């Protein structure tokens, strides 16, 4: 069993390296090896004149040799077996070459002929099968399977006896080649049958190489299917006719009129007719929201569009202009495929629709459907594009009654008229009557007369009916929390977490995945049954719930103010947990894009009626605002937001009423250096004094500290702490020969079972937290009440300060603000340590992965020296660091901490060498002898030696980056001698070797490109014999990777410039 992963990885590697073969084709290729080997052995050892011994009567030796050649020619004929086999192999290889190279050229130059390549593969396979058949029959006819041991040679009327040597070997050769040829023929036939079946059923790509473009170009999310009960009504016919005449249509009409379902029904037809085309549904109404879906499209379709650092020139532009430019680039990129593309923009605002129209109107390769509820605005500028969707016609209602709701057909027109012929209302009303058993249309109409708006009344009654099916208060709470979320699709993992949280609130300590699935299916069943929402399926791994607007609004109107506050507060807590930075993988890109709209919606929620909970709710909203900022960094959307102040930080200052005092400090500060130690200390003291005046409610403190999600690292850290605590107590009891102080202590110790009560990605409860406090793995609530707000502010400042690294390390005022926030977060952490004796995580992180990074990059000797000393101390740090009350990091036991410090210490050493060389060069640039001095300093510098020594302890992944940095250093020194170029090439090649040793899926494309680019530049500068030829080879390889992977655009342009300069005279 242990061998299985290795075997699977080997098979995967084979598949990756045999792109132009099926599995059968690869087997055939493997079988070439024994056939070629047998053919060469046959020629050298079996089928030649040396293995025919003739015995003439009267000849001298020279005549005997001549006679043996003539006799062998008669014996072997003019066409011996190995000639036959050479020709057989040559023809099959020739056919293979005639297919491979034209196909390779076609794929490389992005010709849209993937199906032709697959058909060509089948043709060449069939031709090779025919060749094999012919040679199998010809071998049997010419040679058979019997070789005589004696041969009589007739020469000058003399019969000369000859002995045939190695007869058994010759027979074995003939039989083996015959059997192999039959096996190869069978595999060929299997390959042909498999290929025909694959093409006929259109079941994915036949060859891996024809599947790669599909994965790169067409793997974006398909729009979800329309609801099951939709049919091709008159509005759908009008939409089809309109799209035959123009490429952009705006569907207007009231909510519930079926605009979205019409668009999705058309999208389904489009996908069926254009299997390889792009089709994408955008769910974001405003230009700012649209960025989220645009980023998702770019990521999924692998479009060659990079947003990082490309919006500097648009700092003061309106968001609409930024979105317009981005859509233009997407349009131009997608147009290159020369295929029809369908985009559905659902629930768009007028501003968004204007941008879309300007970008896509009259671009024939695009079909664009826009749905909107802002009907009155779409008049001027949208003449001819607008299509009013007012719901079903009377004819549609008759068809619906006949096909789906036969029991209500007599009164169906009355019901439709009451509900303004809106499809959503009609379907929901029919389902409500079915669930109510004895209720008929007239009874329902009478019931709806009590409401001012019949549609609102219908969904409020449906809500009450759905609540009756909820078997407990927990299910009702879950239902209501879902209603508070945004109208955007709700991912299933967010639903599942909501179920888990509400279950823990009900003291269900051990909820299994099967229970979660069962509860989710029950919830979805009720929502779909009463037409409160739909389930969108966009691939097997991408399922989401989408609530309808009218039911959602109707349900919220029926709540009391206290219920509304309760449900929205629960929603804030759940979102705060779900997007927690520690429990989410930083690369969880698509999840962030899905959940951003819900976080933004939560931040806009009205809590004006919650005066008694105002502080707690503000803290929750600030926390979510901070996490929204974090998600913007992880999804690259931060590049569109150029403000150096974060809303979370400003809200924090507002919460403690600090803004005016901050302005006074900045005004009076004579040094005007917001990153100086004195300035930071003064501001930290002010914040601390303000925080003491504010009291956080105890119930919110419990919610935020005692009840939250745990990841696997948290659990392992807590278990280690509790186990060590048990060992200490045990050894103490043995040495003192006494029992524990009280039976209560014994009982508490016996009840705590961290292995069972603390599960990775599980839920921490108040009971767990109290037990952890007793074991020294958590901080008591009394102390946390004093610490929480200050720690909270340090977290907010740290998150914002880290923007320094996401905005290309901008220099100047913006960079100073980020550095200021990192240093202030550290100073606030120091205050907590001094006043309460607690090391919070920010005390470690703000320094380790914060301002010390900036010091290393400063090119300042003193700052680099300080960073070096600090990283050395952090490597042997023995403290324990807490986050929100829980033990989080024990540096001496934390592998990530050790690796991070070692890596940064390595960078410190190199930064010191770079700074020394740069300073020396600047001081003595004009002196020739300075070159030798600099070079000696470079190679003899302690930092250089220490870096080399530390390199041995780094893991391969970090080692690959380290070799690139060494290569960059050698390139910097290359003006002092070509030997540094030699060293640079060696270092870059080491990186390349480390990456190529990994499986294909584990390789880092960016790292490989950097290494190849470095080798290219070094060879270009060195100019030894053959260097430019090799440089061209490396440059073309890097450019090909950049093009295929659609990355490193700047590097690609740089390499193209080097190629052009080498080609120029």
Secondary structure: number of strands: 15
- The separation of the N and C termini measures 61 Å
Give the CA-based shape: globular
- Tell me what portion of residues adopts beta-strand conformation: 5-15%
| Assembly status | single chain
User: Counting H and I runs of at least 4 residues, what is the number of helices?
Assistant: 45
Report the structural category: mainly alpha
The order of strands across the largest sheet is 5-6-7-4-8
Largest sheet: 5 strands, parallel
Query: Any idea what the radius of gyration is?
Result: 38 Å
User: Unreliable stretches, pLDDT < 50, 5 or more residues?
Assistant: 1-17, 212-219, 308-317, 737-756, 928-932
InterPro entries: Connexin, Connexin_N, Connexin_N_sf, nSTAND3, P-loop_NTPase, TPR-like_helical_dom_sf
Transmembrane segments: 20-42, 85-105, 171-190
Subcellular location: Cell membrane
Organism: Owenia fusiformis
Kindly describe this structure.
The N terminus is likely disordered. The protein contains 45 helices and 15 strands. It is globular and about 125 Å long. With 1065 residues, the protein is mostly helical. The protein starts with a helix and ends with a helix.
Structure, briefly:
The protein contains 45 helices and 15 strands. With 1065 residues, the protein is mostly helical.
List keywords for this structure.
disordered N terminus, 45 helices, 1065 residues, 15 strands, mainly alpha, single chain
């Amino acid at each position: 069993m242990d061998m299985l992963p290795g075997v699977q990885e080997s098979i995967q590697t084979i598949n990756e390296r045999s792109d132009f073969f099926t599995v059968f084709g690869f087997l055939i290729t493997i079988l070439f090896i024994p056939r070629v080997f047998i053919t060469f052995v046959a020629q050298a050892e079996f089928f030649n004149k040396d293995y025919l011994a003739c015995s003439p009567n009267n000849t001298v030796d020279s005549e005997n040799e001549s006679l043996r050649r003539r006799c062998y020619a008669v014996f072997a004929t003019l066409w011996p077996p190995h000639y036959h086999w050479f020709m057989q192999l040559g023809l099959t290889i020739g056919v293979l070459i005639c297919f491979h190279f034209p196909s390779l050229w076609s794929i490389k130059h992005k010709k849209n002929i993937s199906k032709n390549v697959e058909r060509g593969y089948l043709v060449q396979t069939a031709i090779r099968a025919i060749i094999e058949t012919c040679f199998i029959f010809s071998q049997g006819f010419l040679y058979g399977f019997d070789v005589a041991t004696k041969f009589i040679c007739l020469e000058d009327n003399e019969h000369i006896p000859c002995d045939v040597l190695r007869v058994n070997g010759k027979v074995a050769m003939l039989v083996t080649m015959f059997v192999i040829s039959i096996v190869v023929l069978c595999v060929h036939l299997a390959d042909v049958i498999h290929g025909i079946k694959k093409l006929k059923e259109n079941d994915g790509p036949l060859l891996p190489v024809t599947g790669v473009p599909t994965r790169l170009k067409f793997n974006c999310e398909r729009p979800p299917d329309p609801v099951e009960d939709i049919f091709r009504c008159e509005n759908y016919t009008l939409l089809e006719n309109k799209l035959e005449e123009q490429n952009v249509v705006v569907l207007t009409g009231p909510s519930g009129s079926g605009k979205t379902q019409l668009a999705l029904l058309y999208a389904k037809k489009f996908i069926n007719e254009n299997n390889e085309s792009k089709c994408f549904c955008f769910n974001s109404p405003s230009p700012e929201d649209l960025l989220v879906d645009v980023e998702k499209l770019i990521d999924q379709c692998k479009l060659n569009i990079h947003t990082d650092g490309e919006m500097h020139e648009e700092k003061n532009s309106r968001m609409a202009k930024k979105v317009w430019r981005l859509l233009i680039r997407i349009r131009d990129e997608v147009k290159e495929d020369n295929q029809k593309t369908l985009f559905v923009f659902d629930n768009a605002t007028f501003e968004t629709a204007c941008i879309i129209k300007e970008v896509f109107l009259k671009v024939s390769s695009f079909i664009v459907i826009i749905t909107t509820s802002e009907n009155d605005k779409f008049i001027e500028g949208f003449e001819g594009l607008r299509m009013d969707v007012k719901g079903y016609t009377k004819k549609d209602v008759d068809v619906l009654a006949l096909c789906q709701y036969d029991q209500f057909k007599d009164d169906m027109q009355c019901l439709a008229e009451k509900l303004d012929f809106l499809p959503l209302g009609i379907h929901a009303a029919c389902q409500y009557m079915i669930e109510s058993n004895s209720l008929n249309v007239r009874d329902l109409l009478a019931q709806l007369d009590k409401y001012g708006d019949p549609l609102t009344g219908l969904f409020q009654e449906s809500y009450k009916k759905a609540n009756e099916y909820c078997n407990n208060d927990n299910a009702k709470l879950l239902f209501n929390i879902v209603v508070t979320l945004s109208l955007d699709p709700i991912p299933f993992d967010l639903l599942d977490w909501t179920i888990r949280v509400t279950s823990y609130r009900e003291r269900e300590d051990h909820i299994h995945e099967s229970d979660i699935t069962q509860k989710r299916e029950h919830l979805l069943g009720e929502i779909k049954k009463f037409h409160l929402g739909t389930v969108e399926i966009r691939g097997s791994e991408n399922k989401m719930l989408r609530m309808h607007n009218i039911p959602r609004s109707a349900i919220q109107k029926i709540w009391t103010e206290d219920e509304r506050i309760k449900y929205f507060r629960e929603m804030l807590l759940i979102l705060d947990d779900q997007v927690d930075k520690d429990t989410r993988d930083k690369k969880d890109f698509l999840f962030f894009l899905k959940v951003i709209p819900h976080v933004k919606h939560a931040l806009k929620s009205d809590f004006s009626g919650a005066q008694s909970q105002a502080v707690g709710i503000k803290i929750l909203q600030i926390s979510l605002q901070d996490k929204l900022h974090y998600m913007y960094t992880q999804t690259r959307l931060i590049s569109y937001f150029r403000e150096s102040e974060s809303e979370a930080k400003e809200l924090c200052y507002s919460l403690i009423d600090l803004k005016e005092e901050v302005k006074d400090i900045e005004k009076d500060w004579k040094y005007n250096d917001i990153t100086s130690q004195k300035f930071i200390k003064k501001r930290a003291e002010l914040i601390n004094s303000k925080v003491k005046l504010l009291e956080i409610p105890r119930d919110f403190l419990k919610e935020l500290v005692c009840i939250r999600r745990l990841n696997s690292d948290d659990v392992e850290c807590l278990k280690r702490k509790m186990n060590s605590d048990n060992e200490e107590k045990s050894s103490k009891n043995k040495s003192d020969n006494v029992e524990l102080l009280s039976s209560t202590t014994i009982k508490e110790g016996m009840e705590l079972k961290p292995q069972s009560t603390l599960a990775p990605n599980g839920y921490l409860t108040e009971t767990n937290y109290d037990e952890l406090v007793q074991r020294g793995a958590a901080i008591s609530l009394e102390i946390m009440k004093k610490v929480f707000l200050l720690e909270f502010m340090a977290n907010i400042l740290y998150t914002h300060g880290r923007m320094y690294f996401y905005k290309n390390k901008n220099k100047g005022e913006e960079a100073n603000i980020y550095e200021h926030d990192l240093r202030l977060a550290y100073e606030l952490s120091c205050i907590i340590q001094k006043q309460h004796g607690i090391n919070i995580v920010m005390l470690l992180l703000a320094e380790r992965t914060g301002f010390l990074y900036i010091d290393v990059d400063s090119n300042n000797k003193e700052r680099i020296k300080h960073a070096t000393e600090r990283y050395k101390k952090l490597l042997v740090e023995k403290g324990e660091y807490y986050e929100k009350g829980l033990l989080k990091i024990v540096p001496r036991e934390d592998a990530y901490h050790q690796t991070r410090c070692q890596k940064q210490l390595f960078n410190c050493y190199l930064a010191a060498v770079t700074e020394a060389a740069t300073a020396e060069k600047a001081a003595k640039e004009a002196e020739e002898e300075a070159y030798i001095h600099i070079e000696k300093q470079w190679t003899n510098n302690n930092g250089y030696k220490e870096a080399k020594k530390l390199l041995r302890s780094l893991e391969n992944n970090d080692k690959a980056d380290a070799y690139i940095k060494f290569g960059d250093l050698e390139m910097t020194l290359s003006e002092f001698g070509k030997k540094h170029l030699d060293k640079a090439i060696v270092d870059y090649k080491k990186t390349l070797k480390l990456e190529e040793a990994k499986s294909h899926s584990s390789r880092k494309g960016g790292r490989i490109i950097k290494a190849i680019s470095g080798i290219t530049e070094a060879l270009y500068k060195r100019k030894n014999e053959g260097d430019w030829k090799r440089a061209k080879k490396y440059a073309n390889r890097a450019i090909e990777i950049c093009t295929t992977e659609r990355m490193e655009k700047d590097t690609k342009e740089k390499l193209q410039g080097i190629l052009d300069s080498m080609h120029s005279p």
